[in-house]
Amino acid sequence: MIKLSKVFVAYAKGSLALRDVTFHVRKGEFAFLTGHSGAGKSTILRLIYADMLPTSGDVRVSGFRTDGLNRRDVAKLRRRLGIVFQDFRLLEDRTAEENVAFALEVTGARSGVIAPKVMRVLTQVGLAGKARQYPGQLSGGEQQRVAIARALINDPFVLLADEPTGNLDERATRGVFQLLRDINSHGTAVLMATHDLDLVRQTNYRTLELQDGALVFDSATDEQLARGATS
Amino acid sequence: MSLTMREAFLAFRRWPALSALSVTTIAFALFVVGLFGLVLLNLRETLRGIEERVEIVVYVTRGTPVEVITVAIDDLEAFPEVQLVSYVTEEEALFQAQRELIEFQGIFSELETNPLPASLEIQLRPGYRTADAAERVAQRLEGLPFAEDIRYGHEWVEKLDNLRGVAAVVGLLIGGAFALASVIIIGTTIRMSVMQRAREINIMRLVGATDGFVRRPFLIEGCLKGALGGLLAVLLNFAAFVTVDRLLWQASFFTGAQAAIIVALGTTLGFASSALSVDRQLRRV
């Protein structure tokens, strides 16, 4: 489903952001990307949603090499992925439901199907009662839930989460993490970049650890690969 | 209303201050261009008024039969440069002189015979009211057997030619500079308003919007801002025209088509600036 093979990413000055990274994420799997800041977690996610291209090596998403996609194909690919960021990236001047609806509108969905679907996803993330509120009127945890709802609206096969709990307090972190687990339990793969090791230790999900751009540990090659994708 | 149109119109509601600033800046940039256009327009009107006075006068030898003159008038009116030929008899010339030269009334009343000759007053067509054309026609008129003297104020027409040339060059240079300045101002204004929304463009792309989907509302918004700015500029120009017309001197204003050109200029610049700015922003995401 997502496959990185011998991926190198070099910055303009020559230093390497990723070095010889190879792994793949299976359908319905939940995997953590861990490592210190600058280890290459976000770079891997950006490669997957085709925000950048590898200097060498292959990045394949749903069988397609990302370096072979034109801009229109990139847009179509992103509609099949759900992407969540640490800073939520919500449009401040739109309500929660407008933020979520927008991701559906870009696909050309008919207006009749948008409202019920938006309400269904907002209900799924526990925000049905706050649909008309603007991001500024919501807590951090709630804003992240809106971002997750937006990521889910197009029924993605994988949710890419880049430090989704990085800006949240402990309670909101637990809530958002539980939500991601629920989403995964319904069959959507989740690839979550985090440096919160406490969160990682709470579960037996697969862990991919990066150090200075290199993949130094993949728990799937030990126990988890044998036990299946989800805990 | 389509999603694109809705997004374009909503932008005015979501960023009222930014939108108002853009429209006002575009309006003032075009107002200056329009103001210069008005100056040129009125200068051209004035020059046209002066040009209409360019005429060639052929003084007719006393005793020339009217039939000869009538035939000559027909010939002269066939000249491509000639618009109208008027025959002024000796009596009419005296009457005209008495009416126009009031200070010489005493002399006129003491005259026993009319000293003024009859004449042919030849008006040239627009486009031929130049020193060269007047001289060309005058040279041909020298062949008329009854032509006693031919005058057309050579120096005066040459000065008029120079004035026209200066007006054209100044108009081109200053008008070009104003137009260029307005293009830069409008381009920068639109670009700044697009840059203010770089985050929005980035998010649009992240959720799977195609370049076309992102671009379209910005293009419509750019057109609307340009058109509104152009309309406001025409209104400001009209206010300036009314002020000058009432307080200083009688002036002319743009025709409907000319005013529409200002609005169209604003619309085009708004569209082009938006297209360039959004594309530049899209290349970054």
Explain the overall architecture:
The complex is a heterodimer of chains A (231) and B (285). In chain A, strands 6-7-8-3-9-10 form a 6-stranded mixed β-sheet, with helices on both faces. In chain A, strands 2-1-4-5 form a 4-stranded antiparallel β-sheet, with helices on one face. Helices cover 34% and strands 25% of the residues of chain A. Chain A is of the alpha/beta class and 231 residues long. In chain A, helix 3 (96-105) packs across helix 4 (111-124). The model of chain A is unreliable at 223-231 (pLDDT under 50). Chain B has 285 residues and is α+β, with helices and mostly antiparallel strands. Chain B has helices at residues 3-14, 16-51, 66-77, 90-100, 105-110, 131-141, 154-195, 198-206, 211-247, 256-283, and strands spanning 55-60, 82-88, 119-124, 147-151.
Question: What is the gist of this entry?
Answer:
Chain A is an alpha/beta fold and 231 residues long. Chain A has helices spanning 41-48, 71-79, 96-105, 111-124, 140-152, 170-185, 197-201, 224-227; strands spanning 2-10, 16-25, 30-34, 56-61, 64-65, 81-85, 158-162, 189-193, 206-211, 214-218.
Q: Work out the helix count of chain A.
A: 8
Number of domains as seen in the coordinates of chain B: 2
Specify the structural class of chain B. Answer: alpha+beta
Give the CA-CA distance, first to last residue of chain A. 19 Å
Helix content of chain B: over 70%
Question: Which blocks of ≥5 consecutive residues of chain B have pLDDT under 50?
Answer: none
Shape of chain A: globular
